[in-house]
Amino acid sequence: MQGLVSRIAVGVFGLLTVSMILLAVFDEHGVLAVRERKQQLEKLNQEIEKAIEDNERYQIEIEGLRKDPDVIERIGREEWKLIRPGEVMIELPDTSAPSKKDQPTEKDSSKE
């Protein structure tokens, strides 16, 4: 009888140990959840750093727009395609994009 009680005690202790380990790993506050939250925190910190860098770049650009007429002229010429009176603008086609004749039409693609 004494052996049976000790075996039951060891079994119960073993089950409790296994259940505690499972809870420590798979619980909402367990190792896996903590690891996932740590990865989320790292991702958010990277996004914050990128936002700070973007903000600094925008602040420099804003200061340039406020104080430097060359910056305003560059943006006007590059982004808005503005020219001074008497200037002539020659715009070349973009050779990096494929032309329409290089792309297959619906008739051509249906033959395949």
Textual characterization of the structure:
The protein is mainly α and 112 residues long. The chain has a domain at 27-84. It contains four helices and no strands. The protein has helices at residues 2-26, 31-67, 69-78, 106-110. The radius of gyration is 34 Å and the shape is elongated.
Weakly predicted, low-confidence segments: none
Q: What is the mean pLDDT?
A: 84
Order of helices and strands: HHHH
Please count the beta strands (DSSP E, at least 2 residues each): 0
Shape: elongated
What is the radius of gyration?
34 Å
Estimate the strand proportion.
under 5%
Largest sheet: none
Helix content bin: 55-70%
Structural class: mainly alpha
Distance between the termini: 82 Å
Q: Helix count? A: 4
Highlighted features:
single chain; 112 residues; mainly alpha; 4 helices; 0% strand; elongated
SSE layout and pairing:
Blueprint: H1 2-26, H2 31-67, H3 69-78, H4 106-110
Structure in a nutshell:
The chain is mainly α and 112 residues long.
